[in-house]
C-alpha cells in the first residue's frame, strides 16, 4: 500500500507542473499584448458589449451589473489618482508640483493603464460567467440601483476633479506636444534671386 502514496505525489507534482506551464504560456501572451493598447481596449469593449447584450436579453442579473459598475468605478479612481497623494502622505519620492515654481515631475498613476485594462477585462469576463448561474440572478428593482450608481459616480468624479484642480495635475497623456513649422523671423530674410 505504500506504493499508492508515491503515485499521488507524482500526480500532484505533474498537475502542479502543468499548471505552472499554462500560467507561463498565459503570461507570455499577456505580455505580447502590452504594446497594443488600442486592440486590447477594442477587445474589452467587445466583451463588455457581449455582456451588455446578454443581460439585456435575459432581463436579469442586475446585482451582478451593479457590482461590476462599483468595481469599475473603484478602478477608475485608482487610474485617475497619482501614485503619491499629496493630501495623504508626504514622501521624499516624486510628487506633484503644487506651485508654478515647483519642478516638473511626471504624473505616475496609482493604477497603471495595463493593470487597469486587465482588471476591467477580468471583471467583465467574471460577470459574464456569472450570468450562466441562476443563483446570481437576485430579483431587484433595477432603476433604484441605476440611480444610486449614477449619484455615486457623480459625487466620486466631482471629488476627483476637485482633487485634480487643487493639486494641478492632469492624469491623461495626450502625447508629445507638436509645434508648428519654424517661420523665418522678420530680420533674417533670405536673399532672393530676381
Describe this structure in words.
The chain is mainly alpha-helical. It has 5 helices and no strands. It has a domain at 37-43 and 76-171. It is found in: Membrane. It comes from Lithospermum erythrorhizon. It is a multi-pass membrane protein.
Write out key terms for the chains shown.
194 residues, mainly alpha, 5 helices, 60% helix
What is the strand and helix layout of this fold?
Layout: H1 2-32, H2 37-58, H3 62-80, H4 113-130, H5 142-167
Helix pairs in contact: 2-4, 3-4, 3-5
Briefly say what this structure is.
This protein has 194 residues and is mainly α. The protein is built from five helices and no strands.
Rg for CA atoms: 26 Å
The H/E string reads: HHHHH
Profile the largest sheet.
none
**Total count of helical runs of at least 4 residues:** 5
Strand content: under 5%
Instruction: State the end-to-end CA separation.
Output: 107 Å
Let me know the average pLDDT.
Answer: 83
Amino acid at each position: 500500500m505504500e506504493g499508492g502514496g508515491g503515485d499521488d505525489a507524482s500526480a500532484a507534482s505533474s498537475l502542479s507542473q502543468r499548471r505552472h506551464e499554462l500560467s507561463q504560456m498565459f503570461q507570455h501572451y499577456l505580455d505580447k499584448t502590452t504594446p497594443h493598447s488600442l486592440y486590447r481596449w477594442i477587445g474589452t469593449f467587445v466583451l463588455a458589449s457581449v455582456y451588455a447584450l446578454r443581460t439585456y436579453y435575459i432581463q436579469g442579473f442586475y446585482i451582478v451589473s451593479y457590482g461590476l459598475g462599483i468595481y469599475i468605478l473603484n478602478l477608475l479612481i485608482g487610474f485617475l489618482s497619482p501614485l503619491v497623494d499629496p493630501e495623504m502622505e508626504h514622501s521624499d519620492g516624486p510628487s506633484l508640483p503644487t506651485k508654478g515654481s515647483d519642478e516638473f515631475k511626471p504624473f505616475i498613476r496609482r493604477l497603471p493603464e495595463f493593470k487597469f485594462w486587465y482588471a476591467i477585462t477580468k471583471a467583465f469576463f467574471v460577470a459574464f460567467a456569472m450570468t450562466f448561474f441562476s443563483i446570481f440572478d437576485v430579483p431587484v428593482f433595477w432603476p433604484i440601483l441605476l440611480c444610486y450608481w449614477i449619484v455615486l459616480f457623480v459625487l466620486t468624479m466631482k471629488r476627483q476633479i476637485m482633487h485634480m484642480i487643487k493639486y494641478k495635475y492632469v492624469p491623461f497623456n495626450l502625447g508629445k506636444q507638436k509645434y508648428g513649422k519654424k517661420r523665418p523671423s522678420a530680420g533674417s530674410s533670405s536673399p532672393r534671386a530676381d
